[in-house]
Design brief:
heterodimer, A: about 110 residues, mainly beta, 11 strands, about 0% helix, globular, B: about 120 residues, seven-stranded mixed beta sheet, four-stranded antiparallel beta sheet
């Protein structure tokens, strides 16, 4: 199975900061990489699919990049409502796997 | 707007079978897409359990495959999960999802505790 490794596992940042989360796959997954945001007590929501496409109503401060095995989620200017846990997930094959998550909070 | 709602027992005894149903509104599950289950143990990350295509074919997480069965009931517009021989390690919030290549619609989740 394809393993997804996220870093960091947790991150503290200030409002307005640029935040970067990385995700590495154990094999080439082309651009089949998706990002989800989960707020406490809520179901996750898809933010980005296909490495860089923003899902409906996702603010433009979110962006994704990468290809092959290395991917990045960037928040250009952190807002209070961005606090939560972020997960990457591959859809290269039908044996889907998620990263272990990056918990983001405010300094 | 697609809405998904999980239903089922919140407590299951060890060695028994966990059974959950996802009722879908706003979309006919037999017409397109696939439908799946994802779980999240308390305080931990997300684990994909399996997906069932609108035609009825299914594929499962290899680590759970021997214990999982998913099914579709298009007449009731719902799909189901059965996980047998459960242990405490199966305690989790279980989410049903629409699988459009991405998990773009989620139920609110239901906590299932495995305990005697």
């Amino acid at each position: 199975d394809i393993q997804m490794t996220q870093s960091p596992s947790s991150l503290s940042a200030s409002i307005g900061d640029r935040v970067t989360i990385t995700c590495r796959s154990s094999q080439n997954i082309s651009n089949y990489l998706n990002w989800y945001q989960q707020k406490p007590g809520k179901a996750p929501k898809v933010l980005i699919f296909g490495t860089s496409s923003l899902h409906d109503e996702v603010p433009s401060r979110f962006s994704g990049s990468g290809s092959g095995t290395d991917f990045t989620l960037t928040i250009s200017r952190l807002q209070p409502e961005d606090i939560g846990t972020y997960y990457c997930q591959h859809s290269y094959s039908t044996r889907y796997t998620f990263g272990r998550g990056t918990k983001l909070d405010v300094k | 707007q697609v809405q998904l709602q999980e239903s089922g027992p919140g407590l299951v005894k060890p060695s028994e079978t966990l059974s959950l149903t996802c009722i879908v509104s706003g979309y006919s599950i037999g017409s397109h897409y696939s439908w799946g289950w994802i779980r999240q143990p308390p305080g931990k990350g997300l684990e994909w359990i399996g997906t069932i295509h609108h035609t009825g074919s299914s594929f499962y997480n290899p680590s759970l495959q021997s214990r999982v069965t998913m099914s579709l009931d298009t007449s009731k517009n719902q799909f189901s999960l059965k996980l047998n021989s459960v242990t405490a390690a199966d305690t989790a919030v279980y989410y049903c999802v629409r699988d459009a290549g991405i998990f773009d619609d989620w139920g609110q989740g239901t906590l299932v505790t495995v305990s005697s």
